[in-house]
C-alpha cells in the first residue's frame, strides 16, 4: 500500500491499520476506528543519546497528555498515513520518528541520523490498540539543551 490515502479527519491524519501477526498494513483509518476493530497500529519512539556524557534525554509528559506527569522516551507518537518514506511508502516509522522529534522537542534530524534499534509488538491488557513499535536512537549534545523547544505535550526534559 504505497498510495497516500485521503485524510478524512478534522484533526488527525489516518493511521495505518496493521495485522497483529505481522506488521503489514491492510487499511488506513482514524485511531478510534482502529480501536473499534481491535486492530493494531504503529508507534515510533525515539531515544536521544549523549554518549560522551553517558546520558539519555527523557521528556516529562505534561498533565494533559497521554501518560500524564510520567518520564518518557525523548519523543514518541502514532505513525500517520501522511508519514511517507523516500520510496513513497505510507505509514513510515522513521518519518514519524523525525516528525515527532521536531513536534515535541523542536529538534530537526535527518533520516541518516536516526538508527533503528528495535521493532516489537506491544500487545498487553490495557493497551488499545496494540502497538507495533519501532525504536530509534540518535545522538544529542546535552550541552545544547537550550535548543530544545518544548511542545504542549511536554513539561520538561
Description:
- With 157 residues, this protein is mainly β.
- It has one domain (15-149): Nucleoside Triphosphate Pyrophosphohydrolase.
- It has two helices and ten strands.
- Strands 3, 4, 7, 8 and 9 form a five-stranded mixed beta sheet that branches.
- Strand 3 and strand 4 form a beta hairpin.
- The longest helix is centred in the middle third of the chain and has 13 residues, at 93-105.
- The N and C termini lie far apart (37 Å).
- Residues 1-9 have low confidence and may be disordered.
Keywords, please?
157 residues, Nucleoside Triphosphate Pyrophosphohydrolase, 3-stranded antiparallel sheet, single chain
List the helices and strands and how they pair.
Layout: E1 15-18, E2 25-29, H1 31-36, E3 40-50, E4 55-57, E5 59-61, E6 71-72, E7 75-78, H2 93-105, E8 115-122, E9 130-139, E10 154-156
Parallel strand pairs: 3-9
Antiparallel strand pairs: 1-2, 3-4, 3-7, 5-6, 5-10, 8-9
Structure summarized in a few sentences:
This protein has 157 residues and is mainly β.
Amino acid at each position: 500500500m504505497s498510495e497516500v490515502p485521503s485524510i478524512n479527519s478534522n484533526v488527525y491524519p489516518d493511521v495505518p491499520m496493521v495485522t497483529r501477526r505481522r506488521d503489514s498494513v491492510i487499511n488506513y483509518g482514524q485511531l478510534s476506528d482502529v480501536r473499534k476493530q481491535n486492530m493494531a497500529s504503529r508507534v515510533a519512539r525515539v531515544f536521544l543519546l549523549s554518549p560522551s556524557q553517558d546520558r539519555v534525554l527523557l521528556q516529562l509528559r505534561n498533565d494533559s497528555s497521554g501518560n500524564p506527569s510520567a518520564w518518557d522516551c525523548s519523543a514518541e507518537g502514532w505513525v500517520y498515513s501522511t508519514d511517507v518514506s523516500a520510496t513513497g511508502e505510507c505509514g513510515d516509522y522513521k518519518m514519524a520518528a523525525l516528525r515527532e522529534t521536531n513536534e515535541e522537542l523542536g529538534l530537526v534530524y535527518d533520516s541518516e541520523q536516526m538508527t533503528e534499534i528495535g521493532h516489537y509488538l506491544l500487545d498487553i491488557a490495557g493497551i488499545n490498540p496494540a502497538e507495533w513499535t519501532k525504536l530509534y536512537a540518535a545522538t544529542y549534545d546535552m550541552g545544547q539543551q537550550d535548543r530544545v523547544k518544548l511542545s504542549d505535550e511536554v513539561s520538561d526534559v
